[in-house]
Each structure stands twice: as C-alpha cells, then as structure tokens.
Amino acid sequence: MDMTHSIENSVKDYLQKKYEVTVESFEFQQTRKEFEGDITLVVFPLLRYVKTNPVKLGEELGEHLVKDVEQICAFNVIKGFLNLSFTNSFFVNQLEEIITTQDFGTQQKDEKSDKMMVEFSSPNTNKPLHLGHVRNNLLGHSVSEILKANGKEVFKTQIINDRGIHICKSMLAWQKFGQGETPESTEMKGDHFVGKYYVIFDQKYKVEIKELIEKGHTEEEAKKQAPLLLEAQKLLKKWEENDTETVALWQKMNNWVYEGFEKTYSDLGVDFDKNYYESETYILGKEFVLKGLKDGIFYKKEDGSIWVDLSEDGLDEKLLLRADGTSVYITQDIGTAIQRVKDFQINGLVYTVGNEQDYHFKVLFLILKKLGFAWAEHLYHLSYGMVELPDGKMKSREGTVVDADQLIEEMVTSAQEIAEELGKIDDLEKEEKQKLYQAIGKGALKYFILKVDPRKNMLFDPKESIDFQGNTGPFIQYTHARIQSLKRKANIADFSVIDYKNALDLKEKDIIKHLLKLPSTIAQAGDELNPALICNYTYDLVKLFNSFYQNSPIIIEDKNVTQFRISIADQVAKTIALNLNLLGIESPQRM
RNA sequence: GGUCGCAUAGCUCAGCUGGAUAGAGCACCUGCCUUCUAAGCAGGCGGUCCCAGGUUCGAAUCCUGGUGCGAUCACCA
Fold first, then answer.
1. ipTM score of complex
2. Which domain holds residue A262?
C-alpha cells in the first residue's frame, strides 16, 4: 500500500551494492503539480553518502527504480528532485483496495485498545454557555471521535463546577429580587434564567460599591464590604455547613441550569459518558495531599497550610491545602484525576481546557508524577486558544459574550434563508427541511471553529456572518449531497467492482493519491489531538473532486467509465461522511 | 519584571519532522447553468512570511537577539 517503503528498499539495496553505503532514511514529498510525477524523492540528502552531483544521482536512481519496481513506469529529474510516476494499474489496484477495506482510514478497537478519557466543557453553573464553551465542546467531541477512529476506547466526561461563590451570588439575587419567578413562569431557558440573576447580582453589587465609595471608603474596601457580597459569602458558608434550606435552593437552581445545558449540548450534538460534580469531588484530593505530606513530597508552613515546592522543575511553590484545611482548585483536580483512573481503568486522559490554564496543568501533572502515579505520564492538556472578538477577549461582565444558543439559532436561520432562496429542496417535507437547515447551519458553525488550529487564538466577528461558501462546512456537505444525487441517477448496483483498462486522467489520479493519505491523516490528527487536520484534508479532497466533477462527465455511454468514475465518487462521499462525523457534522443526502 | 505562546496577501486562515516559483477562502475583477445539484468550476489581481544576525547545498520552518500582541505568575476557578 505505502509505496515509499518499496522505493526506499529498492534505493537502499542499490546504494548498498553500487556504492557500499548504508542509508537509513529517505525524504519523500508529493510532486508539485507543475511537474510530472506522483511522488518525489529528494536527492540532496543522499549526497552526504555518495559524492556526486544531484542530477546525475537522480537519473541513476530513476533508471534503477523503473527497472526494479513494478509500479513505477517513468521518471524525470529536475535539479535535485527525482520525480517518479506510477503505472495505471497501480492506481486502479489502490482504489480497489481502498474501496474494499471496511471503514478505510480508521482502526478498529479491540481488547488491547487504550482506554482514554476526554474531559471537556466543564462549565460553571451560574451562566449560560458562550462561544468559548462552543469551541471547547466541539474540540472535545471531535477529539473523542478521532481517538475512537484511531482504535481507542474513549470515555467522555465533564466536571461541573456546581459549587462556590458564583452560584451563591445567583441564589442570593434570586432570593432577594426574584419574587418566586421560575424558568417556567418566565418561559426562559434555565441557564439563561439563572444567568440573569447573576447579572442582577453584579448590577446591585456595583451600586453598593459606588455608594460606599461616596461615603468615603476606598474602592478596595468597598468591594470587600458591600453588604451583598458579605451576604453571598454567608450563603456559601451555610452551603458548606449543609444548611437544609440553602442546599435545597442550590439544588433547585442548579437543576434549572442543567436543563438549559442539556438543550445546548443536544443542539451541539455532544454528550458525556459520565459527569463529575465538584460538590462531590472537592474533598477527594485532600487525603492524597496529606499522604504526600507524610511521604515528604509536600511540606507544611507554620500556619498549617500545605505546599509543594516545584522550584527544581523551574516552577514556583504552590499551595495545595489552606491552613483551615479547605481545598483549592488544584486539590480537587488531584483527587478527580485519581478517581477517574479508578472508575474507568483509563491509561490516558485528555483535558480540553483553554491555554490560560497552561501553568495550572503543568503543575498538576508534575504533582501527580511526584505522587508516584505511573499514568501521570499519559495526561495531556489539549490547550486551545481563546476566541477573540474584534475588540479583544470576550468578557461576561461587560456583556460582550457571544451566546451559544443564540449563535446556533442564527446559523440555522441563515441556512434556511439560503436554502429557500436557492429553492432546490422545495419538494421536501417540512420536517425534513428543518432537519436539513439544522445540519447545514451547525455544519457551518462547527467547521468554522474546528478548521482553525486548536492551539491558536481565533477571531470571531459577530458583524460578519459565518460563510456558507468556499472553505466551509456547507461546501463539503454540498459535495456529499451532489455525489448522492449522482449515485441515484447512475443506476449502478455495486460501486465496488473495479475493472478498468483505460488510462486514468490527472484528476482521477489526484483523488486516489489523496484518498491514500487518509489513514496517516487520521493517525496524525489523533497524535496531535487536532481536528483541524481532518478539516484541511477533507477540504482538499472536496476541491479535487469538484474539479474532477466539473471537468469530466461521470454518467456517460461507456458503462465501464461510468462504473469507474462513480466508484471514485462514492468513495469520496464515504470519506467525506467519515470525516464530517469525526467533526460532529452531518452529511446530508440532498441540499 | 519572570515564564509560556503567537506574528504569513486588505480580512480570516493553511503551510507535516528544513526542500522546487510560499498556498486556500472571503473581498475585488473576467468567463462558465440547452449535459450528472452554480452552496460549484476555470482564470485574474494581491506577499519585505514582524525585524536583524546565525546554522547549510537549501530557512516561513531550526538557533540567538530585538520589536509588537496575548496569556500566566491568587489561600479565584
């Protein structure tokens, strides 16, 4: 299957016999389209072993390869580049192998498969999800699917930050100003409803601060002494003391939020195998911190707080447990990681968390290693960049966040408008149409976000709507739909029969060559936890196919040609569907 | 200030472990629906790959220094 191996072996033998040198690695690249050939061997690196000029060596190797390797039929040498051409039958055979391979490009999981957990989303329960969460969710879901395609067993999880001062603020505001209204009575989505009270808290809190400053307090004092904040803190304390009424309120409001989140997750097409709740796990880490203390890995300060010294690893000292014995963020992360390994016997864990927490995860992984957990070697922080607006970062307090639910709805509406204008699906049932608008609108949104390298910050301009043309989800979906239409019209029962003696044209070869790269692309996307690679690959494939489609008629008189071309088309469609699925995007039959 | 990351066309982004004349999309301009879906195809315009050194047959890519932007350095999460 992989031609580079046969070429490598042949060249290796040749150099050994002729020049008595042993060359271990060779450099190949795709032949640039302005030159003739299907693969290119770069000759320059070989000059280290064989002192001659690159063109001469290239010619020599070319002549040898044409004789020695059956699938190579021609070559040319330009400067230090040896361009090799494959035979017609090579391409036909490769296509046949691709078509007859079940789920070509992916690996099946078996008993020996790695068990990986992917954590993503992990929201606070005081406000609805925004565009930043959307990027997080889409990445987490896609990476999970990509890992599955690489033969891993995958568990998806989130940790819900359901406790703390933020939810108490919403609770307090609702108690004081809510007059008993509920999501039902206001017909609001639960997370938006609770978020509304978080905003109300902040507004009233600001008024109090202003009043205190006017009475002569410094800003800092005012922020700490504002009655509302003190009350919220009191509420948190009551919660920690398990006060029945407070816990009941906390549960009620959190449940409203969960209902809202459920809707958003379902809209995004993401789900989880298990939810962890911080209110249940925040105590977990403590015993391991204490154990670490006993083992001398950590140390205690005079005030009783527990620390770890990471200065030998180039980092600072880090607090692990407060003097009063309460836990901090990292304490619970230690416990949660240990719990997860216990619960699922995983041997790898991916944290989908923004790059603002790079330092935190460096520290966390180091601590787990120091505690002696072998699996700590297999923790990965999928550190993704911020979604920025034209005027900078999104800030919830300043109301510049892009709301997830609203954005999804807008995308679906846009899809509907475009589809209605084009009028190609007017004959579909109402329900079918709605499904299609959903698929296309979300396809546009998801692809828009996933095509960007996760590690990089990306820009979203709310004033400029997300495109449906060019390098977009709908463009790819469209190509899939068009191929389905071809298949319906071709009247061919079996797309897997390949018996073709005609000469392949350039575009057919290009498509087959690109299909051959699918396995390594999926593997690389898995290694790098990078869905953007799938986007790029799929986009390139679709462009190649569209060019082919538009320039060579597929359904023609000659049944043999039709059979061959429709088989290529079908395989392209299968590949699109496979890849879009890895991205969490649907592949419509029509559009 | 220390640490980490980023800088490529007017805008948004690709560019794999160094390889041929740096690529797409959007925008702008020109063609193509009497033949399989024009959310498409063919083409044009557009670049000091942030700057300066270095490494070598060869650097957008690696190294050093600088500039700019961002993140982080909490008994917040």
1. 0.96
2. 164-276
